[in-house]
Amino acid sequence: MKEKNVIQVKELTKKFGDFTxxxxxxxxxxxxxxxxxxxxxxxxxxxxxxxxxxxxKPTSGEASVANFDVxxxxxxxxxxxxxxxxxxxxxxxxxxxxxxxxxxxxxxxxKVKIKEKSKALIDELNLQNVANELVGSLPLGWKQKIAxxxxxxxxxxxxxxxxxxxxxxxxxxxxxxxxxxxxxxNGTTVFVTTHYMDEAEYxxxxxxxxxxxxxxxxxxxxxxxxFKVKNMNDVFLKLARx
Length: 242
Fold this sequence. Notes:
The protein has about 240 residues and is of the alpha/beta class. The protein contains nine helices and ten strands. It has a domain at about 30-55 and about 75-90 and about 150-240: Rossmann fold (3-Layer(aba) Sandwich). The strands form two sheets. A six-stranded mixed sheet has the order 6-7-8-3-9-10, with helices on both faces. A four-stranded antiparallel sheet has the order 2-1-4-5. The relative contact order is 0.17.
């Protein structure tokens, strides 16, 4: 069930000297929503996401995540979100169990809670046979699924996923999206960037950035109707061509 807004953005802007990377973007994201944040490389997606997760201060505009202001409470934002970067986020030279324990500690979980969460995660992903293996020895698809689960260890209100399925095979991509659906169903908001336009179809709503501005924002169905096309890739191409 969709409820209150957990992300609110109004005319958020980021400039680097004379260059405007993010240009007065505005949108809201509801609790439990899967929100696709799309755009070509250089469109401003990553810059916008960095402001929302509290690691880059905006030049102007307003934004709050999990009811915390990005200007005044960036540390509180970090405590209430999960984040999975485009590049694999775990430590290759630690085992699966050691990674879970390490990140559980960073998230401030007690030893008892870490042990409980570790068992649940390993059982859910059927990792019993590799729990004591170095993460670096595992296939990319397994690494990504573990990284996603670890980012949810502390039950964040929002999870930010930056190109989470880049480089993995189609079967693993489908499994990953099943995990995303389950996460959203449990009430966690999922904010995801992807360059796979077919994945945009899986989102509740999608925004598309072009040259720092949000040029389209709606459900995939309504965007396809608006642009009179059959798939999201064609929507993206129409916007990119102006």
